[in-house]
Design goal:
Helix content: 25-40%
Distance between the termini: 33 Å
Strand content: 5-15%
GO cellular component, one term: mitochondrion
Family: Belongs to the CoA-transferase III family.
Number of helices: 14
Pfam families: CoA_transf_3
Order of helices and strands: EHEEHEHHEHHEHHEEHHHEHEEHHE
Structural class: alpha/beta
Low-confidence stretches: none
Strand order of the largest sheet: 6-5-4-1-2-3-12
GO molecular function: alpha-methylacyl-CoA racemase activity
Mean pLDDT: 93
Number of strands: 12
Protein name: Alpha-methylacyl-CoA racemase
């Protein structure tokens, strides 16, 4: 795989950090999570990673982390600014141990500025990026699209991309560097097209009244007879013509930009058939009309069956295949590997670092490290 041989240290965190580590693991990196002494709730992205449980409030615990850093390629820090420095594990300290280490810092607001020490979540970062203000309709409060935009797109994915760029640059310079990946700033960057197109007529109205945000009758979702939904993206004239053909409507009567009449008429017609019936109609028409698939039934649709985009984990839960696809070095989802539990690899990792059996026993006895058995969780 593309990242085979790359050693990553991931400091335990929630959502964005673990998914960044999971991306790297899916493409072959050897990822070790340094977890706290107590299990963290909602951690569902530990598959394919090693886990060592260390008390980093102790001198001995910090020494273990430093030893790990000497042979690592990437250090993924998801703590607030200053936390790692206070532990003696800041980038300047680690660089003295390993000048080739890439130190990636993934936080909500980054390492500088008036908000750097503030707590936040995806909804806050989306708000501060300006993007959340666009996700409104009819003057109602904006609705956050789960925690996808800032946490994962602007955070995890861009941070992983930054790490890969730094690894590539290191092949030329031989040096590591610090990556400051702020989710707020990252969300703004992935929204570059929206920022750069704001002067165009497609954004002339209030949120929810424009071409791409639900204000255009030929670019929105409609409810079907069976309570499901169809998504319509018939923007171009040729697609709109086929869309009207599927609805059995006249293009002369339903001009593409006659929104006031079109919205209600389209909604009325979609309610006359089930989602499956509409699929049968539009499968034969190139109209940019698709069913709104539900997560639980994705693997039943032929698109996902043929492309094998869906896998199942040890609990029979649907997980996506790593993307993008590679011709020679494809990613292999770590999600299919049994999830590691907290401290599962504590002892073998310490042994690799050169600790003797007696030294490991002392560390365990003194609570410097921990090793959990699955049955104890």
């Amino acid at each position: 795989m593309a990242l085979k041989g790359v050693k990553v240290i991931e400091i335990q965190g929630l959502a964005p950090g673990p998914f960044c580590g999971a991306i790297l693991a899916d493409f072959g990196a050897d990822v070790t999570v340094i977890s706290k002494l107590e299990p963290l709730p909602f951690d569902v992205l530990n598959n394919g990673k090693k886990s060592i449980s260390i008390d980093m409030k102790t001198k001995e615990g910090i020494e273990i982390v430093k030893k790990m850093c000497t042979s690592a390629d990437v250090f993924l820090d998801t703590c607030r600014p200053g936390v790692m420095e206070n532990l003696g594990l800041g980038p300047d300290s680690i660089a003295k141990l390993n000048s080739r280490l890439i130190y990636a810092r993934l936080t909500g607001y980054g390492q500088i500025g008036p908000y750097k020490d503030k707590a936040g979540h995806d909804i806050n970062y989306g708000a501060m990026s300006g993007i959340l203000s666009l996700l409104s309709r009819n003057g109602e409060p904006p609705v956050a699209p789960l925690n996808i935009l800032a946490d994962f797109a602007g955070g995890s994915v861009l941070c992983a991309f930054g790490i890969v760029l730094a690894l590539y640059e290191r092949t030329k310079s031989g040096k590591g560097q610090i990556i400051d990946s702020a989710m707020t700033d990252g969300l703004m960057y992935i929204s570059s097209w929206i920022f750069r197109s704001r002067f165009l007529p497609i954004w002339g109205g209030e949120p929810g009244t424009n071409l791409l945000d639900g204000g255009f009758a030929a670019y929105k979702t409609y409810k079907t007879k069976d309570g499901k939904f169809m998504a319509v993206g018939a923007l171009e004239p040729q697609f709109y013509a086929n869309f009207l053909k599927g609805l059995q409507l006249s293009p002369e009567e339903y001009n593409q930009f006659n929104n006031s009449d079109n919205h209600n008429k389209f909604a009325e017609i979609f309610l006359t058939k089930t989602q499956e019936e509409w699929c049968q109609i539009f499968d034969n028409l190139d109209a940019c009309v698709t069913p709104v698939l539900e997560v639980e039934s994705l693997n039943e649709h032929e698109y996902h069956k043929v492309k094998k985009t869906i896998l199942k984990d040890e609990n029979n839960i649907i997980i996506p295949q790593p993307q993008p696809r590679f011709s020679r070095t494809p990613g292999i989802s770590a999600g299919q590997v049994k999830a590691s539990w907290y401290g599962q690899h504590t002892e073998p990792i310490l042994q690799e670092l050169g600790y003797s059996k007696k030294e490991i026993e002392i560390l365990l006895r003194n609570g410097i490290v921990n090793t959990y058995k699955r049955s104890s969780l």
